Fold this sequence. Notes:
One of its GO terms (molecular function) is methyltransferase activity. Keywords: Methyltransferase, Transferase. InterPro entries: Methyltransf_25 (IPR041698), SAM-dependent_MTases_sf (IPR029063). This is Class I SAM-dependent methyltransferase. It contains 7 helices and 11 strands. Strands 3-2-1-4-5-11-10 form a 7-stranded mixed β-sheet, with helices on both faces. The protein folds into 2 domains: 4-148 and 220-263, Vaccinia Virus protein VP39 (Rossmann fold, 3-Layer(aba) Sandwich), CATH 3.40.50; 150-218, N-terminal domain of TfIIb (Single Sheet), CATH 2.20.25. The chain is 27% helix and 33% strand. Helix 5 links the parallel strand 4 and strand 5 (135-146). It starts with 7 loop residues before the first helix and ends with a strand. The model has no long low-confidence stretch (mean pLDDT 95). With 264 residues, the protein is α/β, with parallel strands linked by helices.
Amino acid sequence: MTGIYDDPWAYELACSFRDVPAEVDALLGWTVRHRSSGAAARTVLELAAGPAEHAREFARRGLAATALDLHPAMCAYADQQAKERGLELDVVQEDMTSFALGRRFDLVVTMLDSTSHLMTLDAFVAHLDRTADHLNADGLYVLEMSHPRDRLTDAPSVSTGWTVEHDGPGGRVEATVRWGEPTDRLDPVTQIADDHVTMTITKPDAPVRVIRDVVPYRFWTATELSAAIRLSGALETVAQYGDFGDVALTDADAWRMITVLRRT
C-alpha cells in the first residue's frame, strides 16, 4: 500500500487550499524588508519541497529556483510539473540535514511545517547548519512551522479536516482530507505522534479512491526552536510572524509560526 507521500498529485491536491502566489508575495516582501542590502531575492532554494509548488511559483516569476526533497516520487513529480509549464527548476534529491549543493542562495524556505520530519534536536541543528552554509552573506532563511497552540491547547489554529475542489481536464475533482485523529497523541517524552491521514478522492466517472497513511510528526515548541538556533550558532532570528501578513506570533489570529533567520 502506498502512502500520501508516494502520490505527489494527491498530496498537492490535499494542500491546494493554500494561496501559494500570495505566500510567495510575502516571502519576497520579507527579503526586501529584512536583507541588509534591501535587495530583492534572485536565487531561492525550497527545502523538503515535495511537489515544489512554491519553488515553481518562484521560477514562474523569473527567479533561479531550486527544489530539494528526499522522496524520489516527489522529485520526479516536481520536475515533470515544471517542464510541462516551461519553467526552469533545478530539482535535487537530498536530505535536508546533510545536503551540500556547492552554491549559495539569497533565500531559502521550508514550508508547510516540513521540519516536523526532523525527529531529534541533533537533526534540527544539522539542518540549520547546512542551511546557513547555503545562504549568501545577506541571505535569509524563512521557516514555516505549525503554531504551538495547535498541539499545546484545546483551541488549535487550524482544523485537522478539510475539503478541496479542483477543476481538471477530466472534470471537477473533490477530496476530503483528515490529517490527524483525536486519538493521535504526542508521546510525552519524544514529542512524536503518529498522525493518521485519510484522503478520499472523488472524480467524475471514476471509482472513489481512499488513501490511508500514518505519518510520524515531531512537534517543536517555540522555545525548542530558539534552543536549536542557539545550539547551531550559525543563524540568528530577524523576525517572527503568525501568518503570511504582519500578524504577530502572539496574536489571537496567528495560525502559523514563521521565523525569518539570517547568518550570524
